[in-house]
Design brief:
The chain has one domain: 3-Layer(aba) Sandwich (Rossmann fold), CATH 3.40.50.880. 36% of the residues lie in helices and 28% in strands. It has a 9-stranded mixed sheet with strand order 2-1-3-4-9-8-7-5-6, sandwiched between helices. Helix 1 packs across helix 8 and helix 2 crosses helix 3. The longest helix is centred in the last third of the chain and has 27 residues. It is globular, with a radius of gyration of 16 Å.
Length: 232
Amino acid sequence: MKVLAVQNIECETLGTLDQLLRTDGFEIEIIDAPFDHVPLVSTNYGAIVVLGGPMAVYDNLDYLFREQELIRSAVKSDTPLLGICLGSQLIAQAAGGRVFKGSRKEIGLEKVFLTPRGRSDIFRDSDGRDAMTVFQWHGDTYDLPSNASVLARSDLYPQAFRIGSAVGIQFHLEVDKQMIRRWIQEYRKELDFEGIVPNEVVPSENELTQLASNCKVVYRNFASELRSRWMS
């Protein structure tokens, strides 16, 4: 089965999800959304992953409008869809929610709290029953539409949700040390503006191992939906 990965900036990739997908034999098609053609329908793909980026849903960029059309197509056709950070915000907006600047940015390791629905859904079998330490890098948040089920929250914002076949996750489990260091270079001005010391953003080896473990959990649960659709 072919998985479409929609990349919004070169430095925000599938990360550790890439190898997990390829090891299981999935074919990955990666498009660079600002420059490549973004399809408006999902029927050629077994699953779709929409990745992060520094742009905002409300920036009125043509390719972000196309991504929202693709998201609506995926939900309508029951295609498994995973949105990460900006990807989750695009799902929220496409489904009738509202994306806006949050009261403060979340950058670095943060704790999120799993809802009962989240523990039986995409976070099933995660190490922490009620909470999970994740890597954050976002300033926008969203009001979710009424048909969304919240899967995780932080002290400030909703952090994960499901709408039909689409799961939106505001945080990053797919990161490794190399990717985080690349983001520190790419987004250094943002760190300076927020008064964040760059080295404090980099997780320890144990914390990176835990992120990778939880990423595998999310991947396994997402992949099981993908296989179920393929088997049917």
